[in-house]
Amino acid sequence: SQELEQSPQSLIVQEGKNLTINCTSSKTLYGLYWYKQKYGEGLIFLMMLQKGGEEKSHEKITAKLDEKKQQSSLHITASQPSHAGIYLCGASKGGSQGNLIFGKGTKLSVKP
Amino acid sequence: GAGVSQSPSNKVTEKGKDVELRCDPISGHTALYWYRQSLGQGLEFLIYFQGNSAPDKSGLPSDRFSAERTGGSVSTLTIQRTQQEDSAVYLCASHRSGTPQYFGPGTRLTVT
Questions:
Q1: If DSSP states are collapsed to H, E and C, what string results for chain A?
Q2: Closest Cβ opposite residue B48 in set A41, A90, A98
Q3: Which single residue of A74, B55, B71, B93 has CA 20 to 30 Å from A110?
Q4: Chain A residues inside the 8 Å CB shell of B106
């Protein structure tokens, strides 16, 4: 079965610093989704990537899906305390979206 | 708002009791998903509805778990004879073709 591995598991950065979170799949990704979760809350959708080589940006967050479609990265530029939370990557198993499998998450803390 | 809503937000129940968790998806979203998030296990898929039908129930952990969806809208997840290992946050998500899954805030279930 497909598995998603995220790295690092946790990250503490100083406000203003850049950071990258990675998500590696054991199989080809047909759709890759990045979500953010704050403690006690649901998942907030960030970005969806479907094509190899695709890159999307929103505000200071950029997500990329590599050409071979087995790895994605999430890059945050000039981090702020509002970026703190748990970042989760999710992948569809192929074809139509269907249910998603998720990585274990990366916990990001941003020190003011 | 127009997001996915879930109720109750928190539920504490005694071992052996039955519980019902409710999900109201975004209007017009034909697909609805239930996931479970527990410490150390990450996010696990439980069941998927397309309209009122459940083509994928593969994630339900035991026959104590069941779910239904009526009118292509509201869904109820029922756990019978709750056990302590059922303690988790239960998340509901919905989407329609071409959109990502949007998640509700979750129901935190504690079985004592």
A1: CCCEEEECCEEEEECCCCEEEEEEECCCCCCEEEEEECCCCCEEEEEEECCCCCEEEECCEEEEECCCCCEEEEEECCCCHHHCEEEEEEEECCCCCCCEEECCCEEEEEEC
A2: A98
A3: B93
A4: 41-42
Q: How many residues does chain A have?
A: 112
The predicted-structure confidence for B46-81, as pLDDT tens digits, reads as follows 999 999 999 889 899 999 999 999 998 999 999 999
Residues ≥6 apart with Cβ < 8 Å to A13: A19, A79, A108, A109, A110, A111
* Interface residues on A facing B, Cβ-Cβ cutoff 8 A: 33, 35, 40-45, 48, 88, 90, 96-105
Average pLDDT over residues B24-53: 92
Distance from CA of B90 to the nearest CA of A (A): 10
Say if the Cβ atoms of A99 and B103 lie within 8 Å: no
Report the gap between the CA of A106 and the closest CA in chain B (Å). Answer: 11
For the cut 70, the answer to whether the pLDDT of residue B1 exceeds it is no
The Cα A74–Cα A65 span in angstroms is: 9
pLDDT tens digits, A46-97: 999 988 889 999 999 999 999 787 999 999 999 999 999 999 999 986 555 5
| B95 in reach of chain A (CB within 8 A) | yes
Lowest mean pLDDT among A7-16, A96-105, B3-12, B45-54: A96-105
